[in-house]
Design goal:
The complex is a heterodimer of chains A (398) and B (372). Chain A is an alpha/beta fold. Chain A contains 15 helices and 13 strands. In chain A, helix 10 packs across helix 11 and helix 12 packs across helix 13. Chain A is globular. Chain B has 372 residues and is mainly alpha-helical.
């Protein structure tokens, strides 16, 4: 009898737990795909003559993105852009709830696009919500639009139709193969809250052609106290990468009067030392090393391959030094320490930092650089000589 | 007399201590805002400060062999004063249960089930814990090795996967804050997660080990648990840098950042699962010793009739503790560490002095099934 009671009790508890699993889990937090609006990109634009901002939410439509079969579906864009004017993000989301039958899901957001005008006004205030809100992820890209943010979100890309996803995929690829480096929200915020460091963000330009639309990353914006104060192009962005050791692999044309060479640079090694000059001014010593292989070569008439490789090593090393000095000069003129030099002094010279931090701007302006760069030639591709010089060399032999 | 007759092996005891310490990863936010990148040092300092406490607890366990904390107080102070101390400890254990239940409820509601009323989460969770408590000491501690090994494995795997995000420079500069902040943070760490190990004195009499060797397994448990916590804090600081202090659960953010070729990403769910399992163990254990303590206080022959009653008290208590997480953190950083010292240091010291003065001790004959 006792065993029977125990068996009944256990069965009832199991039944209760099973019932709870199916009922309680579905009561409050049930989220079906057809009740959600998945945000794939958030854009922020300025409104003329107003302190409010125009928040744009790109919402992916699952059926169209996956290739719906109906003709109507093919004509429509695979996303919708919803907009609302508000001072803060979270209230904007609340107001959007009144305009849509679906709940905004921010877990899948890929990009935060800020218009250039908003970047110049300042970004610190509205970034709070992007870190505070639990749905938000800190690995989203922070991008400045060369123009309006909602234009970027409203355009389709050639391959990936939803531009929010497309931009994210494009940037993910670019950081592996080019001079573009990742500026995800976590890194951006880290610089924003740092004592002296300042963040940067890539600028995306929309180029409309007759039959297509291109999204291009050609420059970066420099911030100072949360406001965009300057911009630099790809050559100078390499300078930032040399200092911050962001680069993985990239292709570059080496300028030379004697010829022309396209090389792929890789295996980057960076050593930075925060030091002082004999007068006590900050001195950054940089030791940079990398390897390169030749992808294409033209000119260099009468040169043998040893001469060419030695010359290219010299050119590449000089290019590294020049680009590094150029970007530091430019940032010094803007008084924006995007390299984290101040943080480096804080970490390595704690005692001196206590006196330096009060007037870091002054120290940064007087900072000098010592760059020692060495680019090493490692591979020449399938052929060892310059093709256009081969005939001449054959004639010389005969 | 001890109404729990089950005996557990030292292995289960060690894993239980590891699990208890590791489940305190949520409480790192109590001190990481104070010393930021130096939080890892606080784990080391806290551990060093806790070792003498564990030696004190082990001395009591050795002096009063086969007895648990409640019985020790009665042995040392006599029935009347002993029961008074027992009542204080009962309140302490019920408070710890309620606080940990509050942590769990807040975590689940804020991170995953945002619209589910927290009372439902607390009720369902505590109901499952009560099933575990009904099984007694063996049922609860048997779960310890599984949770401890799983949590440690996930910690190591996640740390390896985040290796490309790690920047060791983020640990610099060292000792960048005023000395008082290190003292305050160490005090918080030593009293809130680590000093709570006094709860294990409630089961010290149920471990199949030679009483003299009890301190060895206690300290091993502490060291291994703290090692887990240390790895976790070091990883979080090296990955998140100065942003680690912004997040209440930094490891959750670190696992969000892991992305291995798009194949392994959005791994924060692992962090959530592990945390819930660890808190299930911790709440069950504290719930069990609360029920056991209450039964001993009222001279009952079994703690089982009290399980649901204590559960209801814990639920009500949880909702009366703090109005907001801000107040919870503020209290944990200011008042709680001093208050907890009463239970973790002052009373045990009084017990030690009184036991020596009154020459009180209980010795058991050496048993054959002791093992280590």
């Amino acid at each position: 009898m006792k065993k029977l009671v125990k068996a009944v009790a256990v069965t009832m508890i199991c039944a209760l737990l099973t019932a709870l699993t199916f009922t309680l889990s579905g009561c409050w937090d049930a989220r079906e795909l057809d009740t959600l609006a998945m945000v794939t990109g958030v854009g922020i634009d300025a409104i003329e003559g107003s302190d409010e901002l125009l928040f744009s939410f790109q919402i992916g439509k699952v059926q169209q993105a996956a290739g719906g079969s109906s003709t109507q579906a093919e004509e429509k864009k695979p996303f919708a852009v919803m907009q609302v004017e508000e001072q803060g993000l979270m209230y904007a989301i609340k107001r959007l709830r009144n305009k849509t039958s679906r709940q905004l899901l921010l877990h899948h957001n890929q990009v935060l696009i800020i218009s250039r005008e908003v970047a110049e006004r300042g970004v610190l205030a509205f970034l709070d919500a992007f870190v505070r809100e639990r749905q938000m992820r800190t690995e989203i890209w922070v991008i400045v639009a060369d123009g309006r943010a909602d234009e970027l979100l409203s355009e389709e890309m050639d391959q990936e139709k939803i531009s929010g996803l497309g931009i994210s995929i494009m940037l993910d690829d670019l950081i592996k193969i080019s001079e573009v480096y990742d500026v995800q929200l976590q890194r951006f915020i880290s610089n924003v809250i740092s004592e002296t460091s300042e963040p940067i963000a890539p600028v995306i330009k929309l180029i409309k052609r007759e039959n297509s639309t291109e999204f291009s990353v050609d420059s970066f914006v420099i911030f100072k106290e949360g406001k965009a104060v300057g911009e630099f192009g790809i050559p100078l962005s390499r300078g930032v990468s040399w200092i911050k050791d962001y680069l993985k692999v990239f292709t570059v044309e080496l300028p030379s009067e004697e010829g022309f060479a396209t090389v792929e640079m890789s295996n980057f090694h960076n050593k930075m030392k925060a030091d002082f000059t004999p007068e006590g001014a900050p001195l950054i010593k940089l030791n940079l090393k990398c390897d390169f292989e030749i992808l294409e070569i033209q000119g260099f008439k009468g040169w043998n391959k040893e001469e060419i490789s030695f010359h290219l090593e010299q050119v590449a090393s000089k290019m590294i030094v020049d680009e590094t000095n150029a970007i530091v000069d430019y940032c010094q003129s803007l008084d924006s320490d995007i390299f984290g030099f101040g943080t480096e002094y804080h970490k390595r010279h704690q005692k001196k930092w206590k006196t330096m931090k009060e007037n870091w701007s002054e120290h940064f302006a007087n900072l000098t650089m010592e760059v020692d760069a060495k680019a090493s030639f490692i591979d020449e591709g399938k052929i060892s000589d310059v093709l256009e010089n081969t005939r001449e060399k054959e004639r010389e032999k005969k | 007399m001890n109404i729990e007759t089950a005996k557990i092996s030292p292995k289960y005891f060690v894993f239980s201590v590891i699990c208890f310490i590791h489940s305190s990863s949520l409480l790192v936010s109590f001190f990481n805002t104070l010393v930021e990148q130096d939080s890892w040092m606080i784990v080391v300092f806290g551990t060093l400060c806790t070792i003498p406490l564990l030696l004190l607890y082990s001395w009591l366990a050795n002096r009063f062999q086969g007895k648990n904390l409640m019985e020790m107080t009665t042995e040392i102070f006599g029935t009347a004063i002993g029961k008074m101390f027992s009542a204080l400890y009962l309140w302490f254990f019920i408070t710890l249960t309620a606080l940990n239940l509050l942590d769990l409820t807040t975590f689940v509601q804020k991170s995953m089930m945002t619209t589910t009323p927290s009372i439902v989460i607390a009720l369902v969770f505590l109901f499952v814990c009560s099933l575990s408590v009904r099984g007694g000491l063996f049922s609860i501690t048997k779960y310890g090795p599984f949770v401890a090994i799983l949590a440690s494995s996930i910690l190591i795997i996640a740390t390896i996967l985040s290796i490309n995000l790690v920047e060791p420079d983020n640990l610099l500069p060292l000792f960048d804050f005023p000395h008082m902040k290190y003292m305050q943070a160490t005090h918080i760490a030593a009293s809130i997660p680590f000093g709570e190990l006094i709860a294990f004195l409630m089961i010290s009499g149920n471990v199949k080990i030679e009483p003299k060797k009890f301190k060895k397994i206690f300290i091993w448990g502490l060291l291994l648990g703290c090692l887990n916590l240390l790895i976790l804090i070091l990883r979080d600081t090296m990955v998140l840098g100065n942003t680690a202090k912004l997040f209440s659960i930094a490891s959750f953010e670190v696992l969000r950042l892991i992305n291995i070729s798009d194949a392994l990403s959005r791994m924060e769910v692992l962090s959530a699962v592990v945390l819930i399992m660890q808190l299930f163990f911790k709440v069950s254990f504290l719930y069990y010793i609360s029920a056991l303590g209450a039964a001993q206080l009222f001279n009952l022959s079994s703690f089982k009739p009290l399980i649901y009653g204590i559960g209801l008290v814990v639920i009500v208590y949880t909702y009366g503790l703090y109005d907001s997480s801000l107040k919870h953190v503020k209290m944990a950083m200011s008042v709680t560490p001093f208050f907890w010292m009463l239970f973790e240091f002052v009373i045990p010291i009084i017990m030690l002095v009184t036991a020596l003065a009154r020459k009180k001790q209980v010795k058991l004959p050496l048993q054959e099934d002791y093992n280590i």
